[in-house]
Amino acid sequence: MRAAKQILVVEDDRTLSRGIVLALGGGELALTEAHDLREAERLRQEQPFDLILLDCGLPDGNGLDWCVRVRRESPVPIIFLTANDTEYDEVAGLEAGAEDYIAKPFSLAVLRARVGNVLRRQESSSRVVLDGFVFDFEQLTFTRNGEPVELSKTEQKVLQLLVRSRGSTVPRERLLDRVWGDAEYVDENALSVTVRRLRSKLEDTPGKPRYIKTVYGIGYTWAVKP
After folding, report:
1. Is the pTM of this model over 0.70?
2. 32, 74, 76, 88: which has the fewest C-beta neighbours closer than 10 Å?
3. Strands (E), the chain
4. CA distances for 40 relative to 50, 53, 107, 118, angstroms
5. Which contiguous run of DSSP H or E holds residue 72?
6. Terminus-to-terminus CA distance in the chain, angstroms?
7. Is residue 2 scored above 60 in pLDDT?
8. Which residues contact 156 (CB under 8 A, 6 or more apart)?
């Protein structure tokens, strides 16, 4: 079974937040609610999300500022949901790093369509370039400092999940589910072996990895370099 896409809804209007969850939830989308930036940041650190729906005006800060912070640490796409509907506000949101900007009030049907578009674009964005690595998950070519790296299908899947969630920890259970299917019937050692092989191919010192780091008791992360 295909794992559900994880969406974080950061909205202080609890009625609207619940309406969004009811409209989008189920099937291939799983939604988590946060009602202020502190809660949103805690949730973001605890698990990777595929998309964030973010209000601009929150009780403990400005969503624009938090968007800039998130964008420095993670490629997770962000859609602003806001009552600020001037052209200036929309430009500010897009320049902060958001993929889309939806002014309130909005149709839930329009929101569903916009969310679907962003998630499809995320899946089709197959080429990742960072720190001397070029990972092309569509052409299935992988290089390190210009030198080709041969990766198995399983290694490619694990790597893709890690680099697309870089800066966030990907739980072991999510990796097992996304890569091997039903995690309940998979030997967890398979994941450890795959990570060890990836490190041997991508790290200068596999025993002291700079990129693929273990977050003990939780999972793995592709570390973001300052």
Report:
1. no
2. 88
3. 5-10, 29-34, 51-55, 57-58, 61-62, 78-82, 100-103, 127-130, 133-136, 141-144, 147-148, 170-171, 212-215, 219-222
4. 14, 11, 24, 20
5. helix 63-73
6. 37
7. no
8. 137, 140, 142
